Sequence to fold (576 residues):
Amino acid sequence: MTALCLAELGPDGAVTDASLRALTFARGLADGEFAAVVFGDAAGVPGETLAGYGVTGAYVVEPGSVPGYAPVAWARVLAGLAAELGADVVTAAATDRGSEVMAHLGAQAAVPVAANCTAAQRSGPGTWRLTRQRWAGLLLEDAELAAEPALLTVAADAVAAAAAAAPAALAVHVHEPELADGDLRVRAGESPAGAGGASLASARVVVGGGRGVGGPDGFAPLEELAEALGGVLGVSRVVTGEGWRPHRQQVGQTGTRITPELYLACGISGAIQHMAGCQGARHIVAINTDPGAPIMSRAGYAVIGDLHEVIPALLAAIRA
Amino acid sequence: MEILVCVKRVPVVGGRIVVTPDGQDVDTRMSGFAISPHEECAVEEAVRITERLGGTVTVLTLGPAEAEAQLRDALALGAGRAVLLEAGAAEWGPLATAAAIAAEARTGPGSGAGGYDLLLFGNEAADTGGYQVGVRVAHELGLPCATGIKELEVAEGTARARREYQGSREEYELPLPAVITVKEGINLPRYPSLPGRLRAKRAEIERRSPAERPEGLRKLGLRVPAAGRQQAQVLGTGAEAVPALVDLLAELGVLP
Ligand SMILES: Cc1cc2nc3c(=O)[nH]c(=O)nc-3n(C[C@H](O)[C@H](O)[C@H](O)COP(=O)(O)OP(=O)(O)OC[C@H]3O[C@@H](n4cnc5c(N)ncnc54)[C@H](O)[C@@H]3O)c2cc1C
Ligand SMILES: Nc1ncnc2c1ncn2[C@@H]1O[C@H](COP(=O)(O)O)[C@@H](O)[C@H]1O
Fold:
């Protein structure tokens, strides 16, 4: 069985964490050729990583063929390679780009796409049993997929990134795709982003504030605390919905997914859509006046009390 | 500017999701329903554009007859016309949904390929999260498409759409007509005004009954993941808990 996987490269030229997980997932499906598509210069292909993850063939599409990110063209490349290699399954990480490219691929070929898979197994020729996430992972769907090739995106928490037991013998091919008219019509112009979102997603400490903060003026002590702990502020949807803080600070299903060592959730009830964004937190500590709040069964530790009293006292103690 | 916005009716789930005994659906006996959040922002964005450039916002949903309520919510926010594609109680897959939406779009008031100057979608539906219906509609109609958009500028003939990706900013320039899928945060939807709500209550809803088509991805059942539910260890009450909290932060290695 042949598997094909999109390997996205980060700004540093390395395979992104999300794609390493997708490669790990896809390797489990391949038992013959395991091909990866990389968009970038052939000279910069992270061959050692790809071989380490078991990839047998890397197909490099250079900027001369496809300049930068162009979703329709990327999908066309995957479609062409899938046909050429006779791929049984094509995968990408369920990132904004991975999801978008797979959707175009599915649309071009009028075949289904299973988004955010956490497990997949072939059950017969051209048929698959799989599990995929709904509700941002709060619910799982077991499904049957009949499609050749099977198009899957891999959920962020489906598997941990793990190299193969032994590196594969990797062949690197420069691939010159055949594009159709208009495939490059939509292209991303890229520039460095302003401050915000990115640091929330990767912060080591997040101090969260919810409706319990009480209003737009209540966030200063939380920000001070976040700063003292080398972290950033995150908020609930009530807070952004009221216009108290900008949406880029929102944690949850329709906000940012965070992965800190510590998430200190203050005045946040722990609605499932909020918790969908902090499943990746190592430790959750709640400060809440209500000992019966749902967050009490999701946090490891809790302080029962008014955040307006606890946070200043905590700040004073840290600074003492 | 003629704009089509596609919204989906989804349950509003609170503390936890419960699956029906047959394992086929989310138990909604205790929940209300709402427009999926990204799409509520799509409605707001469309209304703002027509407030500036003129034209009409048409809101469309494919779902059960009860989804009329979500269309009226969108009308209350400022949409001018509403279309309900009655699909019964069964869940349609993304291919069938996109085909029905594209067929309806072609009958739109505009002259372009898709009957509209701009077609707005959510990036993904909150419940099934397929991440594809907008893209599929774009292909059916032969229109350019950008997804996951958090900033949109529309002028006659073009749209400039932006999103952030891995610390960099991506900007797309699309000729209109185009399909754009948006995310919550692109704007802050207004509260419906009283006159808006009254108008929405009386507005006519156009109904059609498209035919479903089978697809290759079939749901077998739903289940709630076995989460590590626990009971938080209470460190104390009020400011008295602070010494224990400081000890804990030290133990976790997050103190300066
Ligand atoms: C499809 C969908 C997607 C959603 N996506 C998101 C998302 O991405 N992120 C998100 O956050 N939500 C999201 N939500 C909304 C979510 O369901 C909740 O409504 C929201 O998270 C609640 O925010 P909250 O905890 O701040 O407010 P509340 O639920 O009102 O909780 C406030 C809490 O503060 C406590 N409190 C009050 N005063 C104090 C005080 N002085 N000191 C300490 N504690 C106090 C209360 O006991 C209570 O527990 C989504 C909803 C839907 C339907
Ligand atoms: N039943 C539906 N009715 C109207 N629009 C829909 C429907 N299903 C999906 N959409 C639109 O397509 C987007 C993406 O949905 P999905 O691909 O299912 O995640 C949603 O955000 C909606 O804008």
The mean pLDDT of chain A is 95.
